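lol ok so funny story. i was supposed to be doing the assay writeup but got distracted and ended up predicting the structure for this chain instead. priorities right. anyway since i did it might as well share w the group, maybe its usefull for someone
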Amino acid sequence: MEGNMLYHQYLKPNSEYYGKPDRVEKINTYKVYNIPDTYAIISEKESIWKYYHVKGISLPEQGWKIHLTSLLEDAQSVLEKVAQLCMEKKVDFKHLKDKHSFIKMNSKIANRASSGKFMTIYPVNNKIFVELLELISSITRNYKKGPYILSDKRWKDSNVFYRYGGFRVILNENGEHCIRDNEGKLIKDQRTPFYQIPDFVKNFDDYLNTINNSGDLETKGESNLEQYEIEDALSYTNAGGVYLATRKKDNLKVVIKEARPNAGLDGVAKDALARQKIEYDALKKLKDVSGVVNIIEYFQEWEHHFLVEEFIEGRDLRQWLAQDFPFLKDGNNINNHAKNVKNILLQLFTLIDKMHNNGVAMGDLQPANVMVTEDLTVRIIDFETAMPVNSEEKPNMATIGFVSKEMKVSGARDWYGLKRLVRYLALPVLSSEDLDGYLQYNHLNWIKENYRDSFYHFVVDLQEKCDKRIQDFQKYIPKETSLINHTSDFKLSAIINKLIAGIQNNLTEDERFINGDIRQFEMSGGKFNFLTGGSGAAFTLTKNNSSTAEVDKWIQSFLLNKLPRIEDNGLFTGKVGILTLLYDKGYQEVVFNELKILKDNINSTNITLRSGLSGIGLFVISLYLETEKKILFRIFGKTRKNN
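and the output, tada:
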């Protein structure tokens, strides 16, 4: 997933480790009642959908499908009504399994082409399709509008949408979802965040337009958006776009922020529009605070809302650091950087004081929300998480590395964010103190060694001032920042002992053996291999004569049972690495039995050390030198020949 957003799906509450969350809770599971025996229910563990298929009826490969949107609070009620209708009409349908899936499907980072869909109905022909459009829109007409489904066309100003597409999964050689044209040739099933149809159904789509009055294209009065020339899209999310534009009457450069109602849900199910209104209200209160982005206007266009703000010519702190940080050590450059950082931080300190004096806490003070102009004037943007300065409401969004669970008051969170920025601008290395508290001493020591003493003391003093401001809002005992008694031990034996202790402290009682990266769950065999799973940890402990009982228990309880089902043969990613551990632990017979199977299942096109022939060959050579078994000649011969 782009930007490693996949990691977010494995964040577990109140845990320092990645894990697969128990997604379906009974209280939040959507239910269909009185299901006839004529229906087969399909609910795969890894899917967010639950599917209901009419036994004995064969669906076509493709056709006109109906999608239903809903508000979160209406979802169960909508499901009961529409499912009952589908079962009466003997029609296949599916729905999101639970509340968690609903929020995920409509989150800010969700796929814009699929977002908004709560139910999908599969009519077997066009006649039933049109009939169901009318019936479903009729029985759901009293519900409030759900999020708009961008890939579809709305039916008669209702929560019912439709598009033409595949009913079954058909993939081409590139793994793309496809449908068939009139000649039976595969064409791409366009799953885009805007409505489009294949040419061969255009006539029926035109017919639908004659009987459909969705109101989607109606405009009332003068368009506010027409006052602006849109020049570029700065970003797109499921919450809406952010656009660079010019006001036509005076050529003023602006930023236009779009909010889609009921879409872009955050962790507490607050939508994009709610967050936009928070930002608008906060900016109105801060209109006299120089250093805060200015509002131009706020208006609604069609169903979407638009907040127009001044365009700030400059870079955010992430960009500024990437371009201006003295990565090559040079005395003049690093001293100049220290001067600029001091300038920026002192402006931020004053700005936060002024915002708080006006009753507003920014809520998410982090590098992306701080702009600097060419002359290093600081401007703060993005107030959609703003709160009253003394609010104890839990924030709905935050940036890891600039937040702490200890911060209970919104004003305190701003000062904690600044405290983190102090060190980050001096040394742009992100870590979370909640997980890596000891790293602060390493970072401070680096700052002390690479900057002048005056700047080091500035950093420490400003962090202490932030601590005092935090204490004005709540009880807070900051971690000690003195470098005394925090010298590092760089002896090799000490480092090894610490690594072993770290492994031992992270062992689990389950099949993974050790807490690790999300690749334990995403990779085939990821829980057991050398690279991400238990075998690497077990091998390291074995070589150091540590945790012998725990290693033996894991091998007997989990590894040996799973070994035959591991298909990857790689040294680091699969079976060969695991066999290295097992041979070392005395399971020679198991190793050679597996090798007899492995020699016939080697991928000759993969030559990498990580997962291919190079790693397998290295293992075979090592094992031959250890055992002089002739079977290894045959395996190695195959590997060499293929290579």
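The chain has a mean pLDDT of 89. Residues 22 and 153 are 35 Å apart (CA to CA).
back to the writeup now i swear
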